[in-house]
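Protocol step 4 of 6: structure prediction from sequence.
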Amino acid sequence: MIPRLRRAAVLGAGVMGSAIAAHLANAGISVLLLDVRPSALLDDERSRGLTLDDPQVRNRLAAAGKQRALHAQPAAFFIPARAQLVETGNFDDHLSRIAEADWVLEAVVEDLPIKQQVLAQVARYWKPGTVVSTNTSGLPVREIAAGCPDALRHHFLGTHFFNPPRYLRLLELIPLPGTDPEIVAAVSDWGDRLLGKGIVQAHDTPNFIANRIGSYGFRKAVQLMLELGLSIEEVDELTGPVLGRPRSATFRTTDLVGLDTVIHVSENSYRHLTGDEERDVFVVPPLFKEMARRGWLGDKTGAGFYKRVDGEIYTLDYAAMEYRPRRKVALPVLETAKLIEDPARRLRALAVDGSPAGEFVWRLLSSVLGYAARRVPEIADDVVNIDRAMRWGYAWDLGPFETWDVVGVEEIAKRLDTEDRPVPPVVRAVLERGEQTFYRSTESRREYFDLAAARYRPVEEPAGVLVLASVKSANRVAAANPGASLIDLGDGIACLEFHSKLNTIGEDTIRMITGSLEELQRHFDGLVIGNQSRDFSAGANLMLILLESQDGNWDELDQVVRQFQRANLALRYSARPVVAAPFGRTLGGGCEICLGCARIHAAAETYMGLVETGAGLVPAGGGTAEMVRRVTARLPDGVDADPFPLIQWAYETIATARVSASAEEARVLGFLRDGDGISMNSARLIQDAKDACLALVRAGYQPPLRHPIRVVGDRGLAAIEAYLYLMRTAGSISEYDTVVGGKLAHVMCGGRVPYGTTVTEEYLHDLEREAFLSLAGQPKTQERMRYILQTGRPLRN
């Protein structure tokens, strides 16, 4: 019987070990973080009279790892308080305590003999039932476990967390042939439900799945760059979002990971892949060796393919081996491709272009797709695991086989034939025995081509994962318009799904909110508001606001804002429960929608905030009024206490456009309440939100009663105006920031009314709308809106 995961021990407090320990703590798991005992004193320790026997010296390396995680950027902990769950120690004094753990994770340096030595020590204290795993990015798991007793080997497997483990979703599991299936199932469940991971089972081959294909693609990109004479900036532009890859693309990612790590992976690949038909691609190029010799390893050393010089970004000119200012990339094919939203058309446009940039894309894309196709079943049992590994581990929009499908399996194969390049056997099989695609969709499910059986099988999702696309394909869309859809999730629960660009909120979305509430009262018991795109909502449609403001269409703009306020108020007082399921960016109007719901069930990685001041506006969809209502409601009726400190705290959160770095921090900021839930795995979010909604239904949900809101009026307004004056005098904010801040203060204090006046939500909504419209007409606000639309960043003017 596998125990519940309550305690874990992480062996090795380096960058990876300490980050894994932090994420275990994020999941509420107590962690013992151990490292070696130092053999020498530091100068600071010696000056303080410490000896090698002092506990703070003996535990120094583990304590340093914990501090590294605590101060990491991006943050390793959801909130700093989570660090309390991590206890530090050393191997000599505390290794025996692994007997208290449910899971022992070895995460020492990627060196086979060292890992084997640590596991030999683990075997001395291991107790039956405890899971033991080795975290490795590509070393053979069977060799790491070679010296372990048989009983321990039955409880042993490889785990490959991707760095940083909090943010990258992939967890590759590499069981041994003798690993107990219950152990594999337990770790899969822990990784999925507790740590929020996408689980992929890999074969015990060098670098497993994601690093095998990802490192090949990286090395091929470098090879082609050198052959075609492209610059580092050009390659990063061609291998970023335009190709469906992260913004960090090729070389920025390398700087983040570290060139030393990349070299290690390449050397490991070349050493072990003796039968790989493209083994030579993994040879470390002289450029990398020279950069390593000079210490240009990336962010960890302050210089890599890029470095910062006096606040500016410089790029390595690899021909001259010197840095120069970063240049703006001007490639006509790139500019054309960026305008194409459809990924298939965009990739085709890039790949057929006759320029060096187009040749680079075609040769890179076709090489990676072909390499991945030749790795089945060597590295994984099926194409689904490979696609998931690349999407979850490398943040690709599409996995290799999904890319084969969107570009066209037959089209790519024909072009390979014309170039006398081999077409992988699995591709031939799909063309001959399948439907010329690796995936197909039926009315109720998505299927993949099983190469071993030469037929299609369902793409299995873990129990508890609800995929909206599958629900919609089963003809369960109750209503739809260009901005949103209402979907029947079954069991009396509907889902309002946003699907505009960036899920921005415009008139279509507002109409669908209103219509969904009407459908809720007629046909459903509860409503979930959620979707499964990159972000919940980037907020209001800023382009619409800017255009209406520039044209002076104040009546139309006023009407839209009124409708949004009414829709959010209707969410709050709906007779049937509404549960919001935010994740990713949940900004501005998206945040306001959530604030209006009976409950929020958020993904752990939810970045929530009322950010309108960055655009020179104030929240006007009821969010400002709701934050005032929430903080003043903390004071019980009849308690004679000053609400101003609470108002000031909420004011500063909104005025500074503060965005939570996690759902837990959203709770700290007041966007989530004590009764709101958090899902570690975003793939489970819709189902979890549906379950939360059903729980409210079964408990006999009653909407909240309306209560008057006590405001701080002119006294509070004067205090905030004085605060803004001091901030402006000190140069901390701009003159226009004081204008925007003053408008926000007017709303949050309830206007120039006597201190202690009670008002309604509608009264505060009127103040919101008045402030919003007056600011929207200001040239500096319009300048801020234009800048955000052009650059995606706020402007301080």
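Step 5 (inspection) to follow. The two ends are 63 Å apart (CA to CA).
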